[in-house]
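User: For a reading group we're discussing how well predicted structures match intuition. Take ABC transporter ATP-binding protein. Before you show the prediction, I'll give you the sequence so everyone sees exactly what went in.
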Amino acid sequence: MKLIIDNITMKYKDKIAVENFTVKLDKGVYGFLGPNGSGKTTLMRVLADLLRPTKGRILLNDRDISTMGDDYRDILGYLPQSFGFYKSFTAHKFMMYIAALKGIDQSKALKKVDELLELVNLKEHCKRKIGKFSGGMKQRIGIAQALINDPKILILDEPTAGLDPKERIRFRNLISEISKDRIVLLSTHIVSDIEYIAKEVILIKEGKLLGIDSPDNILENMKGKVWKGTTTEERFRNIKNDYKISNVVRKNGVQLRIISDKKPFLKAIEAEPRLEDMYLYYFDKEVEE
Ligand SMILES: Nc1ncnc2c1ncn2[C@@H]1O[C@H](COP(=O)(O)OP(=O)(O)OP(=O)(O)O)[C@@H](O)[C@H]1O
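Assistant: Thanks. Here is the predicted 3D structure of ABC transporter ATP-binding protein, as structure tokens, for the group to look at:
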């Protein structure tokens, strides 16, 4: 299976949200990483065939998805950024409803819904109303509904927004489990969401592709750009505006972690890069979280 984002540009009136964006994808998890407003949602909606791009095409095995109709929808699962739940539905009823919308017959649907509620760890809550669910539970039912047709392509737009750290870990493990034999596209501005599960990280900045690489290669390329060391309050005041500082701890002086192409001060030593250092390097802002 081969999915190609082929030179996509998307304009809203005068605003260019995505520009000349090209990447080739096959099986596995792809993390689309970029700050708010960088064009991730727009790209996810184009990929879900909900938005016609101003220019370019999405090709699945060389077919333009905009000409595929139900052939594409049948293999697509989509969890939008804001997901309208039917609050008064129980989890089970909601899933059966989605199955019916997808044209799955009832006996098959009953089996599939059971399987999916089990997968996302909501079986024991299947009789509860979704309106009473926590944020994490809602996201899990969101994933379950996106999987109802066993999609070959799964699009998850900022799926961990509003989840606490425990729910996030659980969510990550779930994605990892369901990513076999599928293309999973996951958009986020949170590095840790994709750090351990993405085969490739796709960096998106101001609507443009900044780079695509495996987390290991990204870390390799960050070598020599991350520094740590202890300095004085005075020197810290002097250098803090000249460098991207990813961490400050005041303990026996000012302990710093700095992102820089060159050594920031004499006593600084190279540190082992982390993926969030890369975020700071490319996106030039404080690491969120
Ligand atoms: N319907 C619209 N009309 C006009 N501009 C839009 C529209 N939708 C998005 N934009 C603009 O396009 C740019 C990209 O937005 P998009 O939502 O795709 O980014 P994002 O990376 O998903 O950000 P977020 O995480 O905040 O949703 C932003 O500048 C946004 O303001």
